[in-house]
Design goal:
The complex is a heterodimer of chains A (about 240) and B (about 80). By secondary structure, chain A is of the alpha+beta class. Helices cover about 30% and strands about 25% of the residues of chain A. The termini of chain B are close together. Classes of the chains: A alpha+beta (about 240), B mainly beta (about 80).
Chain lengths: ~240, ~80
């Protein structure tokens, strides 16, 4: 029992108490960033898991992975098959893989032009609160979109980021030994027609992208990547840390 | 005997769903090894085994709702 108490701070440090007065900059929270470009989903997942082991063991510091994936449908732990609206044969014919994952959430789609943000972060340095971490991921995306003049917001009870009633970023994470894997996907400039293959997150929602909302030629993926690093640093350095207390 | 208890999850979250047991009752587990995966709204997290020994009884099956402070299983600690 004592071991459990030590490893997951059960009871001893209720999340809210751990957060009050919490400043990750003072605690020395830092992360390095790896930009993998356009990469295979499964390979990236294996890479994340191996990174997460090293972060949990204290061998390497928290690491932010940025990348894009070719079209792939991933199913979270709550996924229902009926939320994939095409048959396996049709998906295979279209060259789209379907992959079961260990993240939270339902069905989602990744494709080129969507920025994938995988923070392999050590939550032992960030207040040991899973849902505050989710809210902060949202916060970083909201701040990024603000820089592009896009007014984004959260929807009560629904994880993710929204613009004018449409979803622009999906979020789902997994945690093992207080280290996170998976993360957020932000639709920058992608083929929105492909979203008709699924019922995103199991909801009757319409997805949107930054390109749909803004002039396409003003959107450079490299710049969006720089911005997301900046916003995550801002949020997790403690300056813009979102506290729901 | 050591109890495997659902810890505080933060932000007023009091429930989770057992999504995957890495071990079955009767199997040997090692302290700090991933024992069970739990799911809340948009997150899954692994609970490590609190002790080394035999997984004696599993009380919460996959798909079942559990509350903070519930006992999910028991482990007979290795002498």
């Amino acid at each position: 029992m004592q071991n459990l108490v030590d490893s997951i701070a059960y009871g001893k440090y209720p999340a809210i108490l751990a957060l009050s007065g919490f400043n990750s900059k003072e605690a020395g929270f830092n992360f390095e960033t790896l930009d993998l470009g356009l990469v295979d989903y499964n390979e990236t997942l294996s890479f994340q898991k191996s990174l997460a082991k090293d972060v949990a063991a204290g061998i390497r510091e928290s690491t932010l992975i940025l990348c894009e994936h070719n079209p792939v449908i991933t199913l979270g732990r709550q996924a229902r098959k009926e939320n994939i609206l095409k048959s396996q044969a049709e998906l295979t014919a279209a060259g789209i893989k379907m992959i079961n994952t260990n993240r939270g959430g339902d069905v989602t789609l990744h494709l080129a032009g969507q920025l994938i943000v995988y923070p392999v972060f050590d939550l032992r340095c960030l207040g040991r609160d899973i849902h505050i971490f989710l809210r902060n991921l949202e916060e970083a995306v909201i701040l990024l979109l603000e820089d592009y003049g896009i007014r984004a917001y959260r929807q009560e009870g629904l994880t993710g980021v929204w613009v004018s009633g449409r979803k622009i970023a999906s979020i789902g994470i997994a945690i093992s030994r207080w280290v996170t894997t998976h993360g957020a996907s932000l639709n920058v400039s992608c083929d929105m027609n492909l979203f008709s293959l699924i019922k995103p997150c199991g909801l009757d929602i319409i997805m949107t992208s930054m390109a749909q909302l803004k002039e396409l030629n003003s959107l450079k993926m490299e710049l969006v990547k720089e911005k997301v690093i900046e916003k995550l640093q801002y949020v997790f350095s403690g300056i813009g840390f979102f506290r729901k207390v | 005997m050591v109890k495997v208890i659902l810890p505080e999850l933060g932000e007023g979250i009091t429930k989770a769903v057992v999504s995957y047991w890495y071990f079955q009752a009767g199997q040997n587990v090692r302290k700090d090894e991933d024992l069970v995966e739990l799911t809340t709204d948009k997150a899954t997290f692994n609970l490590p085994a609190p002790a080394t020994g035999k997984l004696l009884e599993v009380f919460s099956l996959e798909g079942q709702n559990v509350n903070v402070a519930d006992t999910l299983a028991t482990i007979e600690e290795e002498a």
